[in-house]
Design brief:
The complex is a heterodimer of chains A (262) and B (427). Chain A has 262 residues and is mainly alpha-helical. Chain A is 47% helix and 7% strand. In chain A, the strands form two sheets. Chain A has a three-stranded antiparallel beta sheet, covered by helices on one side. Chain A has a two-stranded antiparallel sheet with strand order 1-2. In chain A, helix 6 packs across helix 7 and helix 6 packs across helix 10. Chain B is built from ten helices and twelve strands. Chain B is flat and about 100 Å long. Chain B starts with a helix and ends with a strand. Chain B has three domains: 180 residues; 152 residues, TATA-Binding Protein (2-Layer Sandwich), CATH 3.30.310; 59 residues. Chain B is 43% helix and 23% strand. The chains are: A mainly alpha (262), B alpha+beta (427).
């Protein structure tokens, strides 16, 4: 009798363990977050990779939940009879995990190396890695700006104002953007930044220094609309400025070492 | 005598060294000036190539002749502009000629389509490959400093080629070619035009508030900073509109808020602090943002987009017209919310302070099948107010059009005269 009891308990234990082990890949693959358009990060990388594995997603696997990912997810939901809402909820995750594969090591390795790659199922992974792509800032930006804009402005901000408070760094980025909008200045980021004698960092070569995350975050805030300068188009350091002309500009406010002017 | 010789030799050596270092430093400055010049030309060409690719994309959107006019004109104009940029780059004649011909064909093709000599369908079929080529070259020429903080490798090569060609004796002529970057001819002129919305802040009619009232207003809006160190300064007398600049500091939090002097309206608020690695979920973030919007009094707005990044979400809101639910993008606000705990890190309400005047406008239905290329499917439609070229707010059909290869576009079409006011590619 005792033996039967042990056998039953062992069987029950095995069944529970098996069901747990069997269920794990479907629920533990993604985090518990419900993802939607605008999201960013590792869960989005997995979503894009899995969708690409089964042929629904054809764009770059970059961890940014934009419209390409959104339409691919909706198409997947439609094909598998799920509610078509473009949200990656629990049911969609389970279905997606059950019909696709995700080699996390391979995918993250390519992203970390900055490689251009795809992740289609049934194709040799090595054949899907192409040349190194251009540098990416890995940030989601308002539609009117590109990663190239962010990169160049961040270089200028870091070269010009890396010792300034955060507000002062956002302010320098805002001045560059205000100039683009201004009739007296060129219309593109590069033309504004490289305009002769416009920025000290360009003249002395500091424009080529690699910007830190703080400078990039400051630029991101400026691209999203923050302008601590209240519409300034010039700034100068009163301790080091040699131009008399700059003192004739209408001053707006001082942030850190810089005076911002209209 | 020995001493005199020693003094003479030493003096000559010092003079020689000083001369040598002065020449070296001058050469270094010129080398930098050249690098800047080439960087400018390359980055500018890269930006134009992206713009050209966007214009090519827009020619794929429509079949309607009138709607196609502007993007086809843009293709012709920008391709011609880039040809000028490329001709000034020190790339090999062969490469230059290949790209000049390619861009020439592209520009001429656009003119032929516009004049009805080539059917739009044929153009759209050929352009799928062209846009890829343009983007690839644009990426290749984009500004970069990936080589451990040194100059872009393409720029370095250009500078080296130029130096090798010229030889050290010709530094003077190199100096002349780069003179635009070393002369003191400051080309900037006085500001005449500001962005309209910011300019209008001069015309606020509300009563002025005092420094104490500004502090009180700030604490009402952000009560968590009531015991922060607060320093308030007034904008300079020459500022286009008067405001108070409030700097605050509390523990790990440091930031600023600007309030208009007239009426004490919040212009912007931004804060910095260290961040934890934890992340609240999207629903929690939305709940938090709804709470902030309500507390700060922006209840007539609707969230139009949000973007997650490594430490925060950036959210954009637009005012909603009471009569037709149309979004008024010009009356927008932006929030920045921390990912680790949902704290409000930033608010930008400068555009919201003075609301746009909205005129009544007729809604004439559009035939989307005639207007749009069959390659695109129409996914969503709603009403929104956007600016036309004359800076007037116009009621528009906001249409979301999708093509899986080309991308997703938001197109604004005037509801009355069906003018394409704006087409924007969405990420």
């Amino acid at each position: 009798m005792k033996q039967i009891k042990y056998i039953l308990i062992s069987l029950l234990f095995c069944t529970v363990s098996y069901s747990l082990i069997y269920e794990q890949p479907t629920t533990q693959a993604f985090s518990a977050q419900v993802l939607e358009r605008g999201a960013f990060g590792d869960d989005v990388i997995e979503l894009q990779a899995r969708l690409q594995y089964i042929g629904f997603y054809k764009s770059e696997i970059d961890g940014k939940f934009g419209y390409s990912t959104y339409w691919a997810l909706r198409n997947f939901q439609e094909k598998y009879g799920l509610p078509i809402d473009g949200l990656l909820g629990e049911n969609t995750k389970k279905k997606l995990v059950s019909v696709s594969e995700f080699d996390k090591k391979f995918v993250h390795e390519q992203i970390n190396k900055g490689n251009s790659f795809t992740y289609y199922g049934g194709v040799d992974l090595e054949k899907q890695v192409k040349n190194k792509k251009e540098e990416s800032t890995n940030m989601q930006l308002p539609p009117q700006y590109s990663e190239k804009d962010l990169k160049l402005i961040a270089n200028a901000v870091y070269g010009e104002a890396r010792g300034e408070p955060y507000e002062g760094q956002v302010a320098v980025a805002a001045v560059i953007l205000n100039r683009i909008e201004h009739a007296d200045f060129p219309n593109t980021v590069s033309e504004v930044i490289f305009q002769p004698l416009a920025f000290t960092a360009v003249a002395d070569g500091q424009i080529w220094l690699e910007p830190n995350e703080r400078a990039k975050e400051a630029v991101l805030d400026a691209l999203n609309g923050w302008d601590p300068t209240e519409n300034a188009i010039y700034y100068f350091n009163p301790d080091t400025a040699t131009s008399k002309w700059i003192w004739s500009r209408p001053q707006i406010k001082k942030i850190g070492q810089h005076i911002f002017c209209a | 005598m020995k001493k005199i010789i020693w003094v003479i030799v030493s003096s000559v050596a010092v003079i020689f060294l000083m001369y040598h270092f002065s020449v070296q430093s001058q050469n270094k400055r010129l080398e930098n000036a050249l690098a800047v010049q080439y960087s400018n030309q390359l980055t500018s060409a890269s930006e134009k190539l992206t713009k050209l690719s966007e214009s090519v994309d827009q020619t794929m959107l429509f079949t309607d002749k009138k709607a196609l006019e502007q993007p086809l004109d843009d293709v012709w104009r920008i391709s011609s502009d880039i040809r000028n940029s490329i001709s000034s780059l020190p790339i090999s004649n062969e490469t230059s000629a290949v790209w000049m011909n390619y861009l020439n064909r592209l520009g001429n093709g656009a003119v032929q389509v516009k004049n009805g000599k080539v059917p739009i369908e044929e153009w759209q079929k050929n352009m799928a490959g062209a846009r890829e080529n343009l983007l690839a070259l644009s990426d290749q020429w984009a500004f970069t400093n990936r080589d451990g903080g040194s100059k872009d490798y393409i720029v370095k090569t250009f500078v080296q080629n130029k130096l090798d060609q010229s030889g050290e004796k010709n530094w003077k002529s190199l100096g002349n070619s780069a003179k635009a970057y070393t002369e003191s001819d400051f080309p900037m002129t006085a500001s005449e035009t500001d962005q309209q919305k910011k300019k209008d802040l001069q015309h606020i009619k509300d009563a002025e508030i005092t420094v104490n009232e500004a502090k009180q207003r700030f604490v009402e809006m952000f009560p968590e900073f009531k015991d922060a160190k607060i320093h308030i300064t007034e904008s300079s007398q020459d500022a286009p509109y008067p405001f108070y600049h409030i700097e605050f500091h509390k523990g790990i939090r440091i930031g600023y808020a600007d309030l208009t002097k007239k009426g004490g309206h919040i212009l912007s608020f931004l804060m910095e602090r260290p961040f934890e690695k934890t992340t609240i979920n999207v629903q929690q973030m939305k709940d938090k943002s709804a709470e902030y919007i309500k507390t700060l009094g922006f209840t007539d707005t609707e969230m139009v987009e949000f973007r997650e990044n490594s430490i925060a979400w950036h959210l954009a809101f637009a005012r909603k017209d009471k009569n037709n639910d149309a979004l008024i993008y010009a009356d927008g606000i932006q929030l920045k919310i921390a990912k680790d705990n949902g704290e409000l890190l930033g608010l930008n309400a400068m555009e919201y302070i003075q609301k746009e005047k909205i005129d009544k406008q007729e809604l004439v239905p559009i035939n989307k099948e005639e207007l749009f290329s069959s390659n695109f499917s129409i996914e969503e439609e709603r009403l929104a107010y956007v600016e036309n070229k004359q800076l007037q707010q116009r009621l528009a059909y906001q249409i979301l059009a999708r093509n899986d290869s080309i991308g997703t576009y938001k197109i604004y079409i005037d509801t009355e005269n069906h003018e394409i006011l704006h087409a924007e590619k969405l990420p």
